[in-house]
Amino acid sequence: xxxxxxxxxxxxxxxxxxxxxxxxxxxxxxxxxxxxxxxxxxxxxxxxxxxxxxxxxxxxxxxxxxxxxxxxxxxxxxxxxxxxxxxxxxxxxxxxxxxxxxxxxxxxxxxxxxxxxxxxxxxxxxxxxxxxxxxxxxxxxx
Amino acid sequence: xxxxxxxxxxxxxxxxxxxxxxxxxxxxxxxxxxxxxxxxxxxxxxxxxxxxxxxxxxxxxxxxxxxxxxxxxxxxxxxxxxxxxxxxxxxxxxxxxxxxxxxxxxxxxxxxxxxxxxxxxxxxxxxxxxxxxxxxxxxxxx
DNA sequence: CGTGATACTGATACTCGTTCTCAACGATTG
DNA sequence: CAATCGTTGAGAACGAGTATCAGTATCACG
Lengths: 142, 142
Ligand SMILES: [Zn+2]
Ligand SMILES: [Zn+2]
Ligand SMILES: [Zn+2]
Ligand SMILES: [Zn+2]
Prior knowledge:
Chain A is α+β, with helices and mostly antiparallel strands. Chain A contains 5 helices and 5 strands. The longest helix of chain A is centred in the middle third of the chain and has 13 residues, at 45-57. Chain A is globular and about 50 Å long. Bound molecules: zinc ion (4 copies).
């Protein structure tokens, strides 16, 4: 007798999760949809959006706003980490260096806020876009 | 012979700028539109969007993505600063404590990125929402 | 002034990412 | 098998932002 239907792993949801786990590039919902259609050809976009929301709400994925005006991206790496986003090709890489606790405490003290978390995105040029004049083409946006 | 028409301060643009300067709550474009209609009743929303984009591109205002999925907000305070956003009422207050240079340098070294800037948003509860159970009502979103 | 060139405006149509609605489907239980 | 209920896919709906376009204001110049 299941008191709570935690997360029924339907084929569609499994496929979405697989795509997320296999991705290392923080795809948008639209990109997840594109990729998941290989494994689940008939899947509808609404189902992908619903699956992503479900995975986020159950802690199996993170939803990222990279602050560059682009759509939200999804990340199967649910440990606390930040990102550096290339302004040219849109690539987002993981940054595993947290803000010092002292700084957070100081900001809480000064602002009166109870700080429950933060989001930090660095902007710049990725190594590829610095060297190769063309890099690998302007990927996303801008 | 004016070689470049820099920025013609039309009544509409002036009104938008006044609204921005008077605001201390980082309004969205829609909110700016609402407010500016008091001073410029016939103004169209497209004009507000155009004025905001112009102000941003000429350095008279900043466009903020607060990472909470809500629309972009605008800020007449163009000096470098970050924000703390209340998860309950949506209020965004200024934070004037930059990330230590050493941390940025370390991240640039590790990631190989050339870091040109960053965006940092703290999440939490504002003083009003901590105490007053009701605060001033759930303002924006969530 | 009048004239044309150019910038700006407001209404509206449009785009596009995301959410909603709903009928059909499928798993589960008894 | 029948009843239940969560899930699905199609498509409609939504909303922020953008593009289009005809009309208007501004300006330089004669
Ligand atoms: Zn790049
Ligand atoms: Zn990541
Ligand atoms: Zn609050
Ligand atoms: Zn600010």
